[in-house]
Amino acid sequence: MKQEIKTDQAPPAIGPYSQAILAQGFIFVSGQIHLNPSTGEMLAGSIKEQTKQVLENIKAILEAAGSSLNNIVKTTVFLQDMNDFSLMNEVYKSYFQPPYPARSTIQVARLPRDARIEIEAIALAGDKKK
Q1: What are residue 128's DSSP bridge partners?
Q2: Domain 2-124 carries which CATH code?
Q3: What per-residue string of b and e applies to 8-23 under the rule 16 or more CB within 10 Å gives b?
Q4: Residue 129 pLDDT more than 60?
Q5: Of 3, 32, 36, 73, which alpha carbon lies 20 to 30 A from 22's?
Q6: Residue 7 forms beta bridges with which residues?
Q7: DSSP string of 51-87?
Q8: Is the dihedral of CA 82, 10, 21, 74 positive or negative?
Q9: pLDDT at 130
Q10: What pLDDT is recorded for position 89?
Q11: CB-hemisphere CA count at 13 Å for 112?
Q12: What burial class does residue 76 get, using C-beta atoms within 10 Å of its C-beta: 0-12 exposed, 13-18 middle, 19+ buried?
């Protein structure tokens, strides 16, 4: 059985998908880009600012599901330009504690709305660990 996770604290889906799905004790968070949930507009600024917005969107979705960033077990980071890796990584690291989630980082030709970064996540459901 699967359950949709939805919150107005993160951008709504811009296509036929859910913000996240809860199934079998896991939360599968759809790829998030640097959309401001209040305005629906892309956040301008540096890759560091954009990475922060993406992670805040993921955080809001997980909190709506009763979970947290600390319950993430796997992320996939999509970058438009791998030269942004070290700056993205600085911000990314500040959102997690050891043991860090497993992660893949991939350079892609293009992302929705010409975003520079997109991150998807898989997290454990249940206790909201700080």
Answers
A1: none
A2: 3.30.1330.40
A3: eebbeeeeeebbbbbe
A4: no
A5: 36
A6: none
A7: HHHHHHHHHHHHHHTT--GGGEEEEEEEES-GGGHHH
A8: positive
A9: 43
A10: 98
A11: 13
A12: middle
How do residues 23-38 score in pLDDT, each as one tens digit?
999 999 999 999 999 9
Instruction: Fill in the DSSP letter of residue 39.
Output: T
Instruction: Give the per-residue pLDDT at 3.
Output: 97
The pLDDT of residue 14 is 83
**Rounded Cα gap, residues 2 and 100, in angstroms:** 26
Give the torsion through C-alpha atoms of 125, 129, 94, 106, to 10 deg: -10
Distances (CA, A) of 34 to 22, 44, 46, 61: 23, 8, 11, 14
Q: Determine the residue type at 59.
A: K
Question: Cis ω on the peptide bond leading into residue 99 (within 30° of 0)?
Answer: yes
Contact indicator for 42, 115 with CB cutoff of 8 Å? yes
pLDDT in tens, 56-94: 999 999 999 999 999 999 999 999 999 999 999 999 999
Domain ranges of the chain: 2-124
